[in-house]
Amino acid sequence: MQKQFKKEQEKWLSQIDLNNHFQPNDLKLVAGVDLAYWSKDGKEYGVCCIVIIDYITHAIVEKVNYYGEITVPYISGFLAFRELPLILKAAEKLSIEPDLYMFDGNGYLHARHMGIATHASFYLDKPTIGVAKSYLKIDNVELKEPKNEFGAFEFIQTEDEIYGLVLRTRKDVKPIFVSCGNWIDLETAKDITLHFVNKNSRLPITTRFADLETHAIREKLTSNQ
């Protein structure tokens, strides 16, 4: 299974483009994506929620979800194969087309540059950003903590290239990890992430609202079982 998954990742690798395929000033609608899981009778289930946010007003424009059985086991480095089926089914339910997707997870910040945000871009055909709450170490690279102030960041890089950045979105709060998904540059990914951060959370409201929605839907589904 891993060999097949790795081959799929390698197929897309040459098609990653870390340049903007859009004008940031033209952004109108941005989607946040997250998943939640639960088990029942020896089977695992998941729900994907997508929340579309107005870029200017930060109002929620649309919410959709899709749930089903998870058939792919968790394998480190291959999370996209576990999550993508639910993500694509949820995206099919959208009546509005977002300009960009933000994922609760990594993109280019991945051992093979194929985190969920990057992998999903080829199927959604949209620019993507990865926003993660924790750091999965790349080539034993240790993190350098950013200054304790809003907007401070440090690059996560090997000797050869930059994978992403660790970003401080609130003073005295743990930083988050931002990376390009695809068809966007890292500076724009950082600026869009900061644009959606408010005083209530260190996370951008796109992925935060998607996270809250997944937990609400999961509770509703499991309470009826």
Summarize the structure.
This protein is α+β, with helices and mostly antiparallel strands and 225 residues long.
How do the helices and strands line up, and which of them pair or pack?
Layout: H1 2-13, E1 29-40, E2 43-54, E3 60-69, H2 79-92, E4 100-104, H3 116-124, E5 128-132, E6 153-157, E7 162-167, E8 176-182, H4 186-195, H5 205-223
Parallel strand pairs: 1-4, 4-5
Antiparallel strand pairs: 1-2, 2-3, 5-8, 6-7, 7-8
Pfam families: Endonuclease_5
Catalytic activity: Endonucleolytic cleavage at apurinic or apyrimidinic sites to products with a 5'-phosphate
Site (Interaction with target DNA): 74
Describe this structure in words.
The protein has 225 residues and is α+β, with helices and mostly antiparallel strands. It has a single domain (2-223), classed as archaeoglobus fulgidus dsm 4304 fold, CATH 3.30.2170. It is 28% helix and 28% strand. It is built from five helices and eight strands; from the N terminus they run H-E-E-E-H-E-H-E-E-E-E-H-H. The protein has helices at residues 2-13, 79-92, 116-124, 186-195, 205-223, and strands at 29-40, 43-54, 60-69, 100-104, 128-132, 153-157, 162-167, 176-182. The chain has an eight-stranded mixed sheet with strand order 3-2-1-4-5-8-7-6, with helices on both faces. A hairpin with a 2-residue loop joins strand 1 and strand 2 (43-54). Helix 2 runs parallel beside helix 3. The longest helix has 19 residues, at 205-223. The radius of gyration is 17 Å and the shape is globular. The chain starts with a helix and ends with a helix. The record marks 74 as: Interaction with target DNA. Its EC number is 3.1.21.7. InterPro entries: Endonuclease-V. This is Endonuclease V. Pfam families: Endonuclease_5.
